[in-house]
Amino acid sequence: MTAEHFIGAERIVAYLLMLSVLVVLHEYGHFLVARRSGVRVTDFAVGMGPTLLKWTSPRSGTNYRLNVLPIGGYCQMKGEDGKSEAEQQREFRTTGEHDPDNFQAKTPLTRLAIVLAGPIANFLVAIVLLFGAALVFGTPGEIPTTTIYQLVPGYPAAKAGMQSGDRIVSIDGVSMRNGAQLVQTIHGSLGHHLRVTYEHNGTPSTAELTPVGMPGDTKDGHLGFQPLPSTQRVNVGEAWQYTTHQFAFVWNATFGALGALLTHPASVAGQVQGPIGMARASMTAQQFGPFFFIAIAAMISISLGIFNLLPIPAMDGGRGAFILVEMLRGKPVDPEKEALVHVGGIAVLIVLMLAVSFHDVVSALAGTTAF
Asked: What CA–CA distances, in Å, run from 5 to 46, 276, 292?
């Protein structure tokens, strides 16, 4: 295995561990609220698959498990057996047993709080990550660097073989001192041939590139890449402002992408990505330091929270929706009707899992448009 392959494998492992931590923290949100509400948690597991290590708490009776596959985890509560909410409620009520630590024994409002605790945990984790990263490492500055952060497929820079991490040294023999000078040079060279000298892993290379227009900007020239932003130290107030801004942006961008998929999917088909897209964004961020990796982790955590809130039966939002209907009707939904909704919901879920776009999210991290 070459050094490049080793680094690539290392970044994949880091991404999987990051994703696993986010999922476990999501499940821990369910765990905390369930315990606070008097519901017995039968199993709390880190990882999936067969169990490597298990410890049973003598106080709560919870089985804490470390499983073979270090991906994700789960929180199993008493009264959950894989059946629908309505079926479990009906079975619990027909038994006539007094079982106060059963999930189904709790009021609809309490059950709703437990179900929604997972997504809320994702949002809180994202806020902590963004705020902590801003305080420790700073935030993206207004003037970008001359290093390539993200390439736009199909545009001159990508076609020439340039890669994330390459640093542009000069254009037509003129040294590029900072990103502002680089932007001005490229934007003012629409349709003109440029001799671009850049460094790839410390090795100088040269490419002949012609800036082109982009959708929404046909007057300026673009080579099709997003620059790595510089960082600036910030105080507590500025760090919090950055945190709230990024949180709001990812929230709006995610719902915007979902809306676009529903209203005009053809126009966003080229930007749609799934877990592979998340992995690529994470691996790109890792090479630029901990701030960018933490920021990507926060953005993924927000997106995980949002997708889990969708009113789809397989998600927390779907469970919550049935509980809300139960609160309005005064009784659970008929199991047969809920089963029909599950079938359609799972189909929608599969489509969404295959069509999750992180294009705008990654663009936000760079803090600028491609040029």
From this structure: 28, 17, 22
How far lies 164's CA from each of 227, 270, 283, in Å?
Answer: 9, 20, 10
Q: How far apart are CA 26 and CA 72, in angstroms?
A: 9
Question: Distance (Å, rounded) from C-alpha 278 to C-alpha 214?
Answer: 24
**Structural domain containing residue 199:** 142-232
Higher pLDDT, 68 or 218: 68
Q: What is the pLDDT of residues 74-94, one digit of tens each?
A: 898 887 765 555 555 555 555
What is the rounded CA–CA span in Å between residue 269 and residue 286? 27
The answer to whether the beta carbons of residues 335 and 84 sit under 8 Å apart is: yes
Mean pLDDT of 3-29: 79
Report the number of distinct structural domains present in the chain.
1
Other CB atoms within 10 Å distance of the CB of residue 177: 10
Residue 179 lies in a domain: yes
Contact criterion met (CB below 8 Å) for 222 and 213: yes
102 within some domain: no
pLDDT, tens only, 108-158? 899 999 999 999 999 999 999 999 999 999 888 878 888 988 888 888 998
pTM for this entry: 0.77
Token pair in block for residue 240: 């919090």
Q: Would you say residue 181 lies in a domain?
A: yes
